[in-house]
Amino acid sequence: MLEGLTILIFLQFTGELIAGLARLPIPGPVIGLALLAGFALWRGRMPEPVVIAGDAILRHLSLLFVPAGVGLIAFGDRLAREGLQIVIVLVLSTAITMTVTALVFRALTRDDERDAA
Amino acid sequence: MTLRSLDPSAFWIYLAEQPLFFLAITLAAYLVGDRIAAATGRHPLANPVLIAILLVGAALLVSGTSHARYFEGARFVHVLLGPATVALALPIWRNRALIARHWRAIGAALGIGALAGIGSTLVLARLLGLSGATLASLAPKSVTAAIAMGIAEQVGGTPPLTAVLVIATGILGAVMVTPLMNLLRIRDYAARGFAVGIAAHGIGTARALQVNEKAGAYAALGMALNGLVTAILVPLLLFLFR
């Protein structure tokens, strides 16, 4: 557990460093994600300690959103003012995202499936 | 024991000075939310994070505690978001066989789907006259809050607002995916799962896993890949849009 956690934090730190040095507007942990995925795919294996620690953290991923989410109490005014418009954006754009993604995916898999059948 | 020490407000002041108290409150509120979600058979509307945020938020408002004071304790949980984000490489690694088999469909649906999602969000938000900070908070709403909050911070959004918008998006996606896909007559569980993973991250993925194992695998892959793509696209599109 500790070994894997150390690797994950080290990768996050490396990501922060790259983002800072290259002045990329990308969160450091996301660069860490890309480094880990790239490493595993390149070497053809995922280090076992990372699997153990990663699964342990990801099992309760949603708990980690609570502290930041509670910060919403400071934004009551803005939500009251813009709440309705925000809901409209959320509903429409979520439907658009799913529709476009599913249609493109189907258009490009149909041929494969037919070949396989 | 004096009468003074039994005064409830003095007792509260003592508790509020202990950072561990707010850590305990955070964990307890999440467990309560999780119990409620389990009691409803994990209905998407009974989201444990949303319940926990409402419970803790109400407690802070009633007691007049600032978020900064609360965060002194809660940051011990918050700090794990970074390593958790790095660990999202695991679903990509585990589903590498799917990528190898359908890389064209996955790549195209990922790129075009993410563009459509962020683009439609920005256009609609602008049409409805939302402020710039709200626009920047909305843009990364389709990816897991771990990544979305980091993106929002980079582009001048409000991370706490993004966290809640992300959860709301997840709930909407989970509720809408089955009727919408039936309407579009898309029956392939790979397409259905990938779409909900791209649009509605972990909450959509949980829903896909309930319906079908294949849909769940594609949803988990879509969620992880879109975290990467959205982190690159949001700063780019916001720059072009402004």
Report on the structure:
The complex is a heterodimer of chains A (117) and B (242). The model of chain A has no long low-confidence stretch (mean pLDDT 92). The N and C termini of chain A lie far apart (44 Å). Chain A has helices at 2-22, 28-43, 48-59, 66-70, 76-116. Chain A has 2 domains: 1-59; 73-117. Chain A is mostly helical. Chain B is mainly alpha-helical and 242 residues long. Chain B folds into 2 domains: 4-79, no CATH class; 88-241, no CATH class. Chain B is 81% helix and 0% strand. Chain B has helices at residues 8-16, 19-39, 48-63, 67-78, 81-86, 89-94, 96-101, 103-127, 132-138, 145-154, 159-183, 189-211, 213-241. In chain B, helix 8 crosses helix 13 (213-241). Chain B is globular and about 65 Å long. The termini of chain B are far apart. The chains are: A mainly alpha (117), B mainly alpha (242). The interface between A and B is large, with 72 and 105 residues.
What's this, in brief?
The complex is a heterodimer of chains A (117) and B (242). Chain A has 117 residues and is mainly alpha-helical.
